[in-house]
Amino acid sequence: MSQHNITDSSLLLSLLLVVIALLISQKEKLGMSKDIIWSVCRAIIQLVIVGYVLKSIFDLNNDWLTVLMVLFICVNAALNARKRSLNISNGFVISFVAITTGTTLTLTILLLSGAIEFIPMQVIPISGMIAGNAMVAVGLCFSNLNQRFSDNRQKIQEMLSLGAPVKMASARFIRDSVRAAMIPTVDGAKTVGLVSLPGMMSGLIFAGIDPVKAIKYQIMVTFMLIGTASLSTIIAAYLAYRRLYTARAQLKF
Amino acid sequence: MTTDYPLLDVQGVTFSLQGRMLLAPVSLQLNAGERLLLTGPSGSGKSTLLKILATLLEPSGGQILFKNQNIASLKTEHYRQQVSYCFQTPQLFGDTVYDNLALPWHIRQQKPSRDKLVESLADVHLAADMLDKKIEQLSGGEKQRVGLLRNLQFLPQVLLLDEVTSALDEENKVIINALIDSLVREKHLAVIGISHDGQEIREAQQVLKLEAPEQGTTNEPA
Questions:
Q1: If A235 and its partner were Cys, which of A89, A98, B172, B197 is the partner (CB 3.0–4.6 Å)?
Q2: How many angstroms away from the CA of A237 is the closest CA of chain B?
Q3: What would the pLDDT profile of A221-234 be if each residue is shown by its tens digit?
Q4: Is residue B221 part of a domain?
Q5: Residue B107: which of A164, A248, A250 has the nearest Cβ?
Q6: ipTM of the assembly?
């Protein structure tokens, strides 16, 4: 396997790309210069910290520490997904349960099938990919639920006034929200390899792995992303919709 | 069957939102076979009162008894099947008229019979072939009639009508009013409706005029 090391000087030179973005922002008066500088600084600091933290965890190779790191990833993903919960109370708990369940189940299947080994070097990056995807899907699911419940207030109330249970009155909107939340993952799977060479596969090819072997990992990633997105959004949607009603089956908002 | 308590007993019900009173205290009583008309200026809380009676909104004060039981202690779904609210402009579900008329059956986990659905269409002067008609092909009056029939598939004890005839032409108004009148007379349906129509108000058995809540009034039957 050929080693590819990016040198500090080449990294610095690639900073030119950010300068181009800043120049465009200035020239076109986009007002994004501060945002660009802030996001680049955050990315550098976060990645440097993560790099050293991961190196230490990989060196220690401790099972509990690995589990703790997976939980840390899930907590952060849930904190981010919660931002889209708006009218849904307990957004963090719902996101955490949905993301952690999806991540745990997918990891378990990958481990039991022997696709990956329980070592931090494999479990942690895979967890990040799974939880990150679940985070986006759960966040989208929350946004969609809020939007659909607000747009279809009268329809829901009409169902309720006919004596329908809240689950029945919400079913269509839950289904639509889950579907909309899964579209990016499903569409991503449809175009994988055609539009972009995804991260896992690109990384392996970069590291000198035979592309034919690299696709096996990418296929596994595709499976796990679809599985996690569907499981996490279903859990999130069914835990969240009830929060849009009072205990007396009235719409809260 | 006569009882010594009214079918619906509304006692000093109020509604406020974010500190602003939207419905001044209302008290009213309604028995089976009675028809009450709510009138009053815009903003007096007529629709709000109907939605509270339908348990779609929670009152800020007062209480409502249905058959002498506080509705807060009743199972909401069962209560709503007995006290049914019909919207001013009903939104129809699914693709066809059938989907809408079958819905109350599905809610009760029963299979609708096409004959019964066709029969109910005849009650509001709609032909049998209307059952499979797409909802986007219906006129405003037809939609309103289908919306009302949806509430009447299983006859409730109280029907709450939120200006259901306000946007309709004379022909549709007559059809809907005739159906309601016959249900009140023959099946002892109790009805609370909202109307601004002078003729409907003159002909009504009972009228309750709600006052704008700003005036600090209470709304009680004369």
A1: A98
A2: 22
A3: 889 999 999 999 99
A4: no
A5: A164
A6: 0.91
